[in-house]
Specification:
alpha+beta; PAS domain-containing protein; Beta-Lactamase; single chain; 194 residues; globular
């Protein structure tokens, strides 16, 4: 993450996270990130491959030339890139990782622009990650941006980072994995010995 929008959003998210795997959705105060809202979005995770836009900032929608609310985030990507993005989102949801990357947005007139994105886990209800707070920001702003909508995305690079250095929901060593397995082991009385 190198662009101002993604780095500021990450810093805000990390501050309200306060050492937890992810902040609660209600802890996101729009007034604290008002300068970033036009380039941010929230996606709802309602299945293994369902990440539907709940909200999308005006500039994000303007890049695509349409309102994105209700649109599947994965549908923006080519079939070739969709598996990679889906796997990244699954790791974010299951391990509390932060996703980031860059892509080229291609218009109907074959114009290209580079974008950077960030995908940050949120908890809306319960204790599991079920929202993504994201940002999509242009690396450079060509003159045509906003007038010639992006119709295809070409993923350039993608990565994951764990804010605390390791996956939050996975045991960090074999000893912890064994201890976790023992906690789940339970003796049930009865059976053939009677």
């Amino acid at each position: 993450m190198q662009q101002a929008t993604t780095t500021k959003l990450y810093a805000y998210w990390n501050a309200i996270r306060n050492g937890r795997i992810a902040p609660q959705r209600f802890e996101v105060d729009p007034s604290q990130i008002s300068g970033l809202l036009r380039e941010t979005f929230i996606a709802e995770c309602s299945g293994v491959t369902s990440f539907r836009f709940r909200l999308a900032g005006t500039e994000v929608c303007q890049h695509f030339g349409r309102e994105l609310r209700g649109t599947e985030f994965l549908s923006l990507w080519s079939l070739e890139d969709r598996h990679t993005i889906s796997a990244t989102l699954q790791t974010i949801v299951s391990e509390g990782a932060v996703g980031h990357g860059t892509f080229f947005g291609v218009t109907e007139n074959n114009r290209e622009a580079a974008f950077e994105f960030a995908l940050l886990p949120l908890i809306h209800t319960g204790s599991s990650i079920n929202r993504i707070l994201g940002a999509i920001t242009a690396v450079d702003r060509p003159f045509w941006m906003g007038a010639d909508p992006v119709v295809a995305l070409e993923l350039r690079d993608i990565g994951l980072v764990w804010p605390d250095g390791t996956p939050s929901l996975l045991p960090t060593s074999n000893a912890e994995a064994a201890l976790e397995a023992r906690r789940k082991f339970r003796v049930v009385q009865g059976g053939l010995s009677r």
